Amino acid sequence: MNTIMKFNKIFTLALSLLVATAAFADGADKPSPEERAKRDYTSWLPAQGDMSIGFSLDPVNTLLGTMFKDSEYTPSFDLTGDPLLNQELPNSLVSIMGTYMLTDNLGIRANLGFGLFIKNYNAYAINDAAVMLDPLSNAKVIDQFGYKSFSGSFSLGVEYRLGKRAVQGVFGGGLNYACGTASMNYAYGNAITEMNQNPTISEPSLYQEVVPYLPSARPLSIHSADLIHKVGAYGSIGIEWFVAPKVAFGANVNIGVYYEFNPARAEVYEGWNTITEAHTIHTELVAPANHGFQFGTDNIGANLYMAFYFGTK
Questions:
Q1: How far is the C-alpha of 138 from the C-alpha of 44, rounded, in Å?
Q2: Taking every pair of C-alpha atoms in the chain, what is the biggest distance, in angstroms?
Q3: Are 88 and 121 in contact (CB under 8 A)?
Q4: Are the CB atoms for 282 and 271 separated by under 8 Å?
Q5: What phi-psi label fits residue 277: left (phi over 0), alpha (psi between -120 and 50 degrees) or beta?
Q6: Residue 34 pLDDT class (50, 70, 90 cuts)
């Protein structure tokens, strides 16, 4: 993830330099307002047959809610094609979009978003076996907590452009699909045995009574068996500012409707079974599969991107 952070910093710096350079070049000759009004930007703007490739810069809000509504380890992702964006997890990957201009004003736009986050958290706990041999021992074991999440999305739609100057209004709409999953896994340094039925762990609050015969159980995983799926439609309104010929910064706001399919969620625990007198792994179903339709202010997102246009003629 450090590599992604470095890439984001370099990318942001390069964009800042590009904007500053474009602004300097645009104002180097200090034209009068009348001269600016007469300037011809036709060669800067997309034309019939042009194609573009773009990259999102800063998805500000997410269109879709969390995948597991009651879990703090939950990512969320943007239905418009932006990547996984979790308020608690930085370093989201950028989304990629492309446009083909059917006319000078009408185009087809596709957007592919993806995100992957993997992180392991380690913590020390007292080594129970060492303490049994030496009560003064300060030996430790390591508990491991692993988080993984993935999301992907795709949208396809049309856009219409207004304006012949360096700033164009862009209006559009289309269909979209998104999917994702997340899981949390736990591994402990002290094993559960007949001699040590309630071993020391780094986070004692994880212990709980899941069922009566497991009065002190600790989690092994929190997961969903299948992907969550969301399908819908969106509308967007925004602008593109051309800072150089065929190079633009864009910003848009989207509102959409979607139908969501959530799979069942389960939590797996381990503990000492007071009935069988043995180590037991227990799967607890905590949320059944559900689905539903949503529309409203939660579906509004703001997106920033940079686009490069290429002529095909």
A1: 69
A2: 89
A3: no
A4: yes
A5: left
A6: low
- C-alpha–C-alpha distance, residues 145 and 221, integer Å: 9
Cα 217 from Cα 13, distance rounded (Å):
49
Contact 135, 88 (CB under 8 A): no
User: Would you state the structure tokens that stand for residue 79, as one six-digit string?
Assistant: 């239905």
Whose tokens are 């012949």? That residue is: 164
Determine the Cα–Cα distance for residues 235 and 190; give it in Å rounded to an integer: 54
Place of tokens 């290429």: 310
| DSSP assigned state of 30 | -
| 3-state secondary structure string across 243-267 | EECCEEEEEEEEEEEEEEEECCEEE
**Beta carbons within 10 angstroms of residue 238's beta carbon:** 19
271, β-bridge pairs: 217, 280
Q: Is the pLDDT of residue 122 over 80?
A: yes
How many whole angstroms separate alpha carbon 72 and alpha carbon 69? 8
Is pTM beyond 0.90? Reply is no
- Say if residue 293's pLDDT is above 50: yes
Residue 80 has pLDDT above 50, yes or no: no
C-alpha 182: how far from chain center: 11
> Which pair of tokens denotes residue 99?
């446009």
**Cα–Cα distance measured from residue 22 to residue 241, given in angstroms and rounded to the nearest whole number:** 11
- What is the phi/psi pair of residue 124, to 5°? -85, 145
Rounded to an integer, the average pLDDT of 266-281 is 96
Distance (Å, whole) CA 56 – CA 113: 9
134 versus 74: the higher-pLDDT residue is: 134
